[in-house]
UniProtKB/TrEMBL annotation:
Residues 19-295 form the GH84 domain. Coiled coil: none annotated. Its EC number is 3.2.1.169. GO terms for biological process: glycoprotein metabolic process. PROSITE patterns: GH84. The keyword Transcription regulation does not apply. GO terms for molecular function: [protein]-3-O-(N-acetyl-D-glucosaminyl)-L-serine/L-threonine O-N-acetyl-alpha-D-glucosaminase activity; beta-N-acetylglucosaminidase activity. It is an enzyme of class 3 (hydrolase). Keywords: Glycosidase, Hydrolase. The lineage of its organism: Eukaryota, Metazoa, Chordata, Craniata, Vertebrata. Residues 339-367 are annotated as: Disordered. This is protein O-GlcNAcase. It comes from the Eukaryota. SUPFAM superfamilies: (Trans)glycosidases (SSF51445).
Length: 705
């Protein structure tokens, strides 16, 4: 008889199960080595984490060839790994991803799955997981016949495997809809999640990544909502530090934007961090601090008073400060950087080497086998790199912070470069107050650039080469980016001739960065939206939905209000715009070419498009613009201070218009409408159109689609 499930057993004995905490190796790309994993278990134990979920996407026998049994050599390695996990008090969960090609209704397939898991069970593993993330949702004809839905198919096989394995204490299921963004239409109305919640055996826990695949915030409310559908508290599979989706990014900021009030509402948290093993020190260390924050000490972590001066945008979590957790992590990490990890590493700093002036005296020979070169007078002094400092690591973390946020130094550098560029005319002939300010800010910018170079040099000389090699591409990349920015500012300030690196029409390959993928991205409207980072984070939750005729009154209100506010002139004196008809309700947007922005107070913006403006242009006695046959108009209520929703809305509208067959769009602005002029200019794709036949008192801007 199968033993009762863990949750039932726990309920019967009144015991609470321990909070699952640790790491999921669940990313795409090169899996970690057995040595790295073994080292991870030691760290986890030291820091009080208790779980490791083995799920490397590109490991052959985990996903693509899930049916294949392990060879004796592979088996030996897995046994060693599982034993090492046990030795360090870490629960090793073996995950398998059969979803690429399993036929759920075929008993032979299910038997194959059981056979594979039985083999791993024979290696000493007692915790398992079935993952159905990132797979095709369309069932094959045989499965369609056998199951009423994809969720029913997955749940049936998962329950069967769970029972076959004797209802292990830990058994995790990753749904295909593993975040709110994937649920149709919403979490609470998702038929898929309801089926999982109602039918998955209660001893099985469910993985969940939060509102999105890579969630910026995870709120208590969102977890309460999904728990009620799943009928159990989820285990968070946290992609906050995952970097497998962008080869130019790596994340070394603290675990953040998850209130510690979540802890009692969750079954656990597993972080799926950067592909590079060594730079995950901060990701895992800070997660450990977070997990231990409610109950005081965690494992080997030092006690820290977490209340107080947290200015890290985390609000007022009394139990956890990302900023302090980061400092704790970096302080420990520094020690690791400074320890040599391979023979032949750099010489430890020796007072003889540090001597700047050389003397004629023979140095005292202390180590006969290793003669030390001592420069003579007139020789070059020996190169001695200064050791890495905590400030260097702080800077490193700030430059490679989190997916939705740069660290403060990075933000300052971007803001300063933006300002220096925008005020470049200040460095004119005559010295003014503005010139002085420009020069002083340029100097500060230069100091920040030099700090990046210094950090790079010290990192390159750190005795621990394994960490350095994992970081190398990233720090080289940032060094080059900063070098270009520095040269540009120097050139603006007249301190150097037009830089060979910045302005030449035949640059070296490092002068144009980002490869083909970057090239594609730059060609898209609203590309990158990078300056999101320079603005304060969003203060409200916005949603963008299709326009419907009932929205006309609200849209008219915003239109009138903005017209009064932006342009200081009596209404009668304002030039007529074709777009007034769209916003005023006299003209209807083309089908599928209208969007409405809403916040908690209601409609707060709109973006409307007219694909064919021929009739409207004739009515307004306007020339037709051959390359820009369509019109867009957009407005936001002044209470919307975040630039991001507006950019997202216009980006979506332009895509809709393109889908509707438009080749190019124009917009019209009144001369004084600085706000919208700046908005369209900053998008990068709109340019001012200067053509005969366009009215003088109206600014017309256009973009090809
Ligand atoms: C995902 C994948 C994960 C990947 C991550 C970040 C889950 C459940 N699955 O969707 O393997 O590393 O995104 O790219 O997160």
């Amino acid at each position: 008889m199968p033993k009762p499930s863990a949750s039932k057993a726990a309920a019967e004995t009144g015991k609470t199960r321990r909070f699952i905490s640790g790491v999921v190796e669940g990313f795409y790309g090169r899996p970690w080595t057995m040595e790295q994993r073994t080292e991870l278990f030691q760290r986890e134990q030291k820091w009080g984490l208790n779980t490791y979920l083995y799920a490397p996407k590109d490991d052959y026998k985990h996903r693509m060839y899930w049916r294949d049994l392990y060879s004796p050599e592979e088996a030996e390695k897995l046994v060693a790994l599982i034993t090492a996990a046990k030795k360090n008090g870490v629960d090793f969960i073996y995950a398998i991803s059969p979803g690429l090609d399993i036929t759920f209704s075929n008993p032979k397939e299910v038997a194959t799955l059981k056979r594979k898991l039985d083999q791993v069970s024979g290696f000493g593993c007692s915790s398992f997981s079935l993952l159905f993330d990132d797979i095709e949702t369309e069932m094959c004809p045989a499965d369609k016949q056998a199951f009423s839905s994809f969720a029913h198919a997955q749940v049936a096989v998962t329950n069967e495997v769970f029972t076959h394995l004797g209802q292990p204490d830990t058994f995790l299921f990753c749904p295909t809809d593993y975040c709110a963004a994937f649920c149709t239409p919403t979490v609470s109305q998702s038929a898929y999640l309801h089926t999982v919640g109602e039918n998955l055996l209660p001893g099985i826990d469910v993985l969940w990544t939060g509102p999105k695949v890579v969630s910026h915030h995870i709120t208590v409310e969102s977890i309460v909502e999904v728990s009620s559908v799943l009928k159990r508290a989820p285990v968070i599979w946290d992609n906050i530090h995952a970097n497998d989706y962008d080869p130019q990014r790596i994340f070394m900021g603290p675990y953040k934007d998850r209130p510690t009030d979540l802890i009692p509402k969750l079954r656990g948290v597993l972080t799926n961090p950067n592909c590079e093993y060594y730079p995950n020190f901060v990701a895992i260390h800070t997660l450990a601090t977070w997990c231990g924050s409610k109950g005081g000490r965690v494992g080997g972590q030092r006690d820290v008073e977490m209340t107080g001066d947290d200015d890290d945008g985390a609000g007022s979590d009394p139990c956890y400060s990302p900023k302090r957790a980061l400092t704790l992590a970096l302080t420990d990490w520094l020690q690791e950087f400074l320890s040599t990890d391979q023979p032949g590493g750099p010489r430890p700093l020796n007072p003889t080497h540090l001597k700047k002036e050389s003397s004629d005296e023979e140095p005292m020979q202390t180590d006969v086998g290793d003669p030390v070169y001592v420069p003579g007078s007139g020789d070059n002094p020996l190169f001695t790199a200064e050791p890495l400092t905590l400030d260097d690591l702080q800077l490193l973390s700030e430059l490679f912070y989190l997916p939705y946020e740069h660290g403060s130094t990075a933000r300052t550098m971007l803001t300063e470069l933006d300002w220096l560029k925008a005020h470049r005319e200040a460095v004119g002939e005559a010295e003014t107050e503005m010139t002085a300010e420009w020069r002083s800010r340029a100097k500060c910018f230069d100091v920040m650039c030099v700090a990046v170079f210094t950090m790079f040099n010290r990192l390159s000389n750190a005795p621990n080469r394994s960490i350095l090699y994992d970081l190398y591409n990233y720090i080289c990349d940032i060094k080059s980016g900063v070098t270009l920015a520095r040269a540009y500012v120097k050139q603006l300030g007249g301190q150097s001739r037009p830089s060979a690196q910045v302005m030449t029409d035949d640059p070296e390959p490092w002068g144009f960065r980002g490869g083909l993928s970057g090239e594609f991205q730059r060609m898209l409207p609203c590309h990158g939206n990078r300056d999101l980072f320079r603005h304060p984070p969003m203060t409200s939750v916005y949603s963008i939905r299709p326009f419907c005729p009932e929205d006309k009154t609200e849209i008219q209100k915003i239109h009138m209000e903005m017209q009064r506010g932006e342009v200081k002139a009596p209404a009668a004196a304002l030039p007529a715009l074709i777009s007034d008809g769209l916003a005023g309700g006299q003209l209807s947007p083309s089908p599928n070419c209208g969007l409405v922005l809403e916040d908690e107070m209601g409609v707060c913006g709109y973006a409307l498009g007219l694909t064919d403006t021929t009739a409207a242009a004739l009515n307004n006695q306007r020339a037709l613009l051959a390359d820009f046959p369509s019109l867009v108009t957009m407005q936001l209520h002044p209470r919307v201070t975040d630039p991001a929703p507006a950019r997202r809305m216009i980006g979506s509208l332009l895509s809709l218009m393109k889908t509707s067959g438009s080749r190019g769009v124009f917009c019209e602005l009144r001369q004084g409408d600085r706000r919208m002029f700046d908005f369209y200019s900053k998008l990068g794709s709109f340019t001012t159109l200067k053509m005969a036949g366009l009215p003088q008192d109206v600014v017309t801007m256009g973009t090809r689609l």
